[in-house]
């Protein structure tokens, strides 16, 4: 039988056993091509990405949703000011005026629980506490409160007794709203208690009905912020821009330098290039990446401020201070990303994503107060960068750049984060270099 293979034609090589480790990939033109339908049946190819995707999805869901689902159930020592300015004398048969009775009752009820941390202050101290972001609001008993209540049982009443609830929107709309609800509830309960006392002083049914809830409750802003402040959320979103700028910028610099030095391939659409490998140690590579990160942050920080303030019109004072703080915050995050990538290699981006994004966002305290989150998030807030940076930005934007409003802590944590990034990154690269753990064998040109 005549062979189907022409004379002098080499016998075809058998097709290699398909698998994830099969030679050159599709499109190289240097070997047999493997079809995706063949590779997709290999369990080992699925194993690592499946496990990582599942873990990331599960952890992100638990982290993000776990901190916001039930803030009222997790209240723990939410700071609120309690102000008694009542100067009236006690009502007949009582030893203290109503202002003293109300505030004592509120504090005694609060002392049996840890949900509210009532700060008994005078009005000036309460306003200063709101101006420095130390309290989420205030409940104020006015000077004429007892006198106005006493007048209700006579024909001299001209105004309804009033308790005032002050809000602090600079601490975020949710935190301010929580404090306002708590203050209104406490004021309403005080009104009902007073109504029971007054109802015994008259036998007229109509009058007794009107005295059941005699106290009016007014709500006003205790420490106003600008109209273009996102109801107190611009500090959070601006901080998020800084963190993302450092995180994304650091990873872009990391990938760009590795590509330029020949330690990673470059693909743009169908075009693939590989530069000659530059012989450089891990430590010197990290120095280069960190210098570039700090340099590029000058541009990105400036553009963030131009976009948010100049173009969009975000309310912002102390602009030079805001720029310096923003730049240092972005650099600190970028250096941390470079240190983590240098230490962990390919999974460095995932590790830094959890440190600077996944764990940082729900523990920032900028949207949901840390006092209204589970204990785990309050623990993260001690050291996670988003909380420290948002406190500093909030101080600059809303609280006149006061050091005691979070700015001092923000600067301290930027310094600590920068030192830790430098120490950890260079310690790891120096260790790898001493062990002779080169990244790749240099490729000839």
TrEMBL record:
Compositionally biased region (Pro residues): 7-23
Occurrences of domain DUF3533 (ranges): 51-415
Segments for region (Disordered): 1-33
Entry keyword NAD: no
Database matches in Pfam families: DUF3533
Transmembrane spans: 45-65, 290-312, 324-344, 351-370, 411-432
Main location: membrane
Keyword tags: Cell membrane, Membrane, Transmembrane, Transmembrane helix
Keyword Cell membrane: yes
Cellular compartments annotated: Cell membrane
Record membrane topology: Multi-pass membrane protein
Domain of life: Bacteria
A GO cellular-component term linked to this record: plasma membrane
PANTHER family: DOXORUBICIN RESISTANCE ABC TRANSPORTER PERMEASE PROTEIN DRRB (PTHR43077:SF8), TRANSPORT PERMEASE YVFS-RELATED (PTHR43077)
Family: Belongs to the ABC-2 integral membrane protein family.
Designated name of the protein: ABC transporter
Native source organism of the sequence: Streptomyces vietnamensis
Taxonomic path: Bacteria, Bacillati, Actinomycetota, Actinomycetes, Kitasatosporales
